[in-house]
Structures are given as structure tokens and as C-alpha cells.
Amino acid sequence: MTRVPDEALDLIPGGTLITATPAEGRALAIAIVRNTVHNIQPELEALQAGRPQYATDAARLIAATQVVSLEFATIAAANNYWR
Prior knowledge:
This protein has 3 helices and no strands. The chain is mainly α.
């Protein structure tokens, strides 16, 4: 099996939650969630095999957005809500 690249296993990409803008914070939240999934399942073939099951399932996609939202809330708080 092929493993995801090492940089995709970094739980906090860039080593900090501090970002210059909310848009950068949102992108960081998505990267954190993706990298968390990669740490749980580091085999590319297994990740790709599961994609058709969740890609068309609205409940699973909504669940994924909820996880990103939680990460974004943490990042926003760490950035003092960019004030």
C-alpha cells in the first residue's frame, strides 16, 4: 500500500494556529482535519476506496463540515477572532 506523504501527517501544518486572516484560518482548519484523517488512515488506497461511499452521502459530508467548523472555532479563538 502507498502511504500519504509525511507532510500530510503533520497534525498542525506550519506548527501554529496563528493566521493572518479568517480565510487562512479556514484553510488551516481544513488542512488540520485532512491531516487528522491521514494520521488515522495513512494508506492512500484505503482512503480512495472509501471516497465513493461518503462523497455522495449528504449526512457524511455534513458531518465532515462540522468537524472543520470545530477546528475553525479553535483557530478563531487562538487568533483572538482577528481583532
